[in-house]
Amino acid sequence: DDLEAACRKRQIRTLRGLGARTEWNIIRGIQALRERGDQVPLGVALPVARDIQAHLEVLPQVKEVELAGQLRRREEMVDKLELVVAGTEPKEVLAVLPGLAEVEEILARSEDSIRLRLKSGPVLEVLAAEPKCYWWTLWKATGSAEHVAQVLALAAERGLLIGGPDAVPPDVLLAGVASEDEFYQRLGLSFIPPEIREGKEEVDAARQGRLPQLVDLADIRGDLHCHSRWSDGVMSLEELAQAAAAKGYEFVAVCDHSQSLTVANGLSVERLRAQHREIQELNEKLGSIQLLSGIEVDILADGSLDLPDSVLAERDVVIASIHSGFRQDMEQLTMRIIKAVENPHVDIIGHPTGRLLGRRDPYAVDMERVIEAAARTGTVLEINASPDRLDLNDVNARAAKEAGVKIVINTDAHSQPELDNMHLGLSVARRAWLTKDDLVNAWSWQEIKEYFARKS
């Protein structure tokens, strides 16, 4: 309540590195928690769960705490916050939870679990186990019901479970197994990352050694979609470069809005070229990071772009996005995006479906046709890591991968804290089974530049 009040009084924007956009995002997050009942966007749920996790980790009775369920699988919307706790006295651990300041009421409790309603809205469920049973409890609480059933059926087939999959006391399960990794190994499976434990094709792929090496945060070498105070961001160009360098990035692209988006202080041709000159000057004194001159050009109602090709050709990175005309029919919206895809100067399509999680459904676009066009032209599709968007979603990102389309995870950061949202986009990429080869910002800038040049 205090945070929301501070945002509405415009006090947050007075803090260094924050601005009106940050205030609005905080307010929207609080509203999303209150209005959506038990279902919460991942980007809102994770910080709340991490806060509860931090409370538990400092308790002397607690040995380990980990997120579970939909949160650990990184689903974009979660029905509840789930945690699994290892402690020598599980009952004592659970007894602490109702006293936390965040808790509004107890919904249910048993000897080894408790379900609570938080004041911010979502349901919290905590499972407690003795240390020797922790990995088993965590594993069962992480995978979807289908994944758990498939793996337990395989274990039963191999005679590794006593009493059948539904009656396995943890203390007699696979003697000598002490982790999820060892459990999968004992079943002849490669380790299955939590994000893809959905009961689809992952168990067969693990059995056949076909699971890909999923992209990791350490693989990310740069961010190709950030905004500065030249349009509606709060960072100067130098501050953006320094913030990206502090994350260990090799490159970062400033892609401010184009001229038609006046509400975001979009750049005219003259201002864009002036910005480019400042970028060139900065690159002469920057150390390990390269600041790239880009643009997020608007795709207009008729599919044309907001800037002439001659200006786009001067940019290191061109992202084309729709910011208006969401109510057009599917044929018109799809035509607009495909027309942008076919422009030789467009490198990336930004937030391709235009959704805002929990607030605005995707617009009516035929993603199958967009993906086909992107594959044909070599245009990259974006996973926008903004917690409001996560767009592309995992289903479309997987379809793009299978069609041979390259993907980029961008934060669309308008402030320094928003650069930290890369992990949210990474969650989508991992759920889509993406590897470093699929993701252009896991490449060097030289490799990206050469890939973009093939289209021109």
SSE inventory with pairings:
Elements: H1 2-8, H2 20-35, E1 40-41, H3 42-57, E2 62-68, H4 69-73, E3 77-78, E4 81-87, H5 90-96, E5 103-109, E6 113-118, E7 123-129, H6 134-142, H7 145-157, H8 180-186, H9 202-207, E8 222-226, H10 237-246, E9 251-254, H11 269-285, E10 290-298, H12 309-312, E11 317-321, H13 330-341, E12 348-349, H14 367-377, E13 380-384, H15 394-402, E14 407-410, H16 422-431, H17 445-455
Parallel strand pairs: 4-7, 8-9, 9-10, 10-11, 11-12, 12-13, 13-14
Antiparallel strand pairs: 1-3, 2-4, 5-6, 6-7
Number of separate strands: 14
Averaged pLDDT:
92
From the spread of the alpha carbons, the general shape counts as globular
How far the N terminus sits from the C terminus, by CA atoms, comes to 52 Å
CATH class of the largest domain: Alpha Beta
**Can you tell me the CATH topology of the largest domain?**
TIM Barrel
Number of domains: 3
Q: Which CATH architecture of the largest domain would you pick? A: Alpha-Beta Barrel
Residues in helix, % = 25-40%
CATH homologous superfamily classification of the largest domain: Metal-dependent hydrolases
> Unreliable runs, pLDDT <50, ≥5 residues?
163-172
Account of the protein in words:
The chain has 456 residues and is α/β, with parallel strands linked by helices. 37% of the residues lie in helices and 16% in strands. The strands form 3 sheets. The protein has a 7-stranded parallel sheet with strand order 8-9-10-11-12-13-14. It has a 5-stranded mixed sheet with strand order 2-4-7-6-5, with helices on both faces. A two-stranded antiparallel sheet has the order 1-3. Helix 10 (237-246) links the parallel strand 8 (222-226) and strand 9. Helix 1 (2-8) packs across helix 2 (20-35) and helix 13 (330-341) runs parallel beside helix 14.
